[in-house]
């Protein structure tokens, strides 16, 4: 009974947070319903948020509840015109979950969660978001793209236009398309109107394209005379020709940390940053504001795909993914563990001993 009371209070807090963030829902009534564990983890309908019993009472279960409640706005109040537009509601419900996480536990919790969301977003990133209608809506690829990459598109849009414009965009979308189907092109027009920014490059990159940048940095540090500190002159590089976004550059020094936005257009962008203290470390996109690739992310993606394939019973394909992860980072203890675990399940004990 105590757990149910806590869960009810969580639902009330989430509903109040989303109301303050998105505006009044179509109904102020919300019924929290427990459903059997052998059905689905969650389900929603107007005025209903249904959660499987196994997902009630755990430490992180409030996130699934937040995602489900967010459908009262993103799904009930507005809906996608076609499956190609499903990222708008699926992605926003996932991002609403992350917004509530940030509100409750701070920016650090959001940044940590974004690493997992990014890995899921890149796991099947071979189809542009505006073309996912060709996939089955029940396929892992469709779910990965519309929920996880969709959430990252919203997060990156927030970074691009700023918090004030971002939340104005969300409220304008809900207001202008209440009880209507919304298309991606409709969302793009509202985003540009509310932010007063030209966002064609942003949407072309993230909705019509696939892949993510992998940033590298070349730089030199010079000491300035007369005790004026230091100057860092460098160049951010990445492989995507059409990339066009501001990127956060963080220079950690012996004293004050310096943050600077660098507009990266195309495959490279030069920068100059002056600091008082001696620079110790330079980070690109330290707060995970951009969906990006890296050797560590490649390991995470391969392990995630392997786990999904193992869950589907495709052990040979799962093993191949785990081996990709181990090739990307031979020191990955998780990749080694997953390989050993899978070989043990396959009763390949000889290979299992070699993998340990």
Shape call:
globular
Uncertain runs are none
- How confident overall, as mean pLDDT? 90
What percentage of the residues does DSSP assign to strands (E)?
15-25%
Helix content: 40-55%
Main sheet overview: 3 strands, mixed
Number of helices: 12
Radius of gyration: 22 Å
Number of E-type strands: 11
Order of helices and strands: HEEEHEHHHHEHHEEEEEEHHHH
Distance between the termini: 45 Å
Structural class: alpha+beta
Strand order of the largest sheet: 1-3-2
Annotation keywords:
356 residues, alpha+beta, 3-stranded mixed β-sheet
Q: What can you see in these coordinates?
A:
The protein has 356 residues and is of the alpha+beta class. 49% of the residues lie in helices and 19% in strands. The protein has helices at 2-22, 61-70, 87-105, 107-123, 140-161, 163-176, 184-195, 200-207, 295-311, 315-328, 333-345, 349-355; strands at 31-35, 42-45, 48-52, 79-80, 181-182, 216-223, 230-237, 244-253, 258-265, 268-275, 279-284. The strands form 4 sheets. The protein has a 3-stranded mixed sheet, covered by helices on one side. A 3-stranded antiparallel sheet has the order 6-7-10, with no helix packed on it. Strands 9-8-11 form a 3-stranded antiparallel sheet. The longest helix is centred in the middle third of the chain and has 22 residues, at 140-161. The termini are far apart. 35% of the residues are buried. The mean pLDDT is 90.
